Amino acid sequence: MPRRGRDVVFTPGDKEMYSGMGVSPVRFKLAGGTPAPLTSFATCVVEETLSRTMEGASRPTHFRGVTTVVAKLFNIVLPDVAVFGAKDWQQAAIIKRMVADLNFPVKIIIARRCANRTAWR
Predict the structure, then answer these.
(1) Is the four-CA dihedral 52, 57, 60, 64 of positive or negative sign?
(2) Tens of pLDDT, residues 46-83
(3) Residue 73 CB-density burial (10 A; 0-12 exposed, 13-18 middle, 19+ buried)
(4) Are 27 and 36 in contact (CB under 8 A)?
(5) To 10 degrees, what angle do helices 89-101 and 62-77 make?
């Protein structure tokens, strides 16, 4: 990957984000007494207002997944700034709301799409 003004690129895979590795497993039981698998998660981040309309109306769990993954990434990386594209303005608005509501110390920048690859240099 060519260097373009960044010091580090963090690209975790599914195993790092979803396996529960590095976390002491918490055993709990599902309804009926069945033990829950160790890889299951019981916690997610849900924005309750902006995520219910437009795309969220037809994909009711989509933004729950987005906010949960972004919150996990923010907790792992602890960024000062995060940039999101203006093309998906509903997602960007939901992330801004999540950051404000949960007091993440992250400045969110909504960037327009660059038509030229070299514009990011």
Answers:
(1) negative
(2) 999 888 889 888 888 888 889 999 999 999 889 999 99
(3) middle
(4) yes
(5) 50
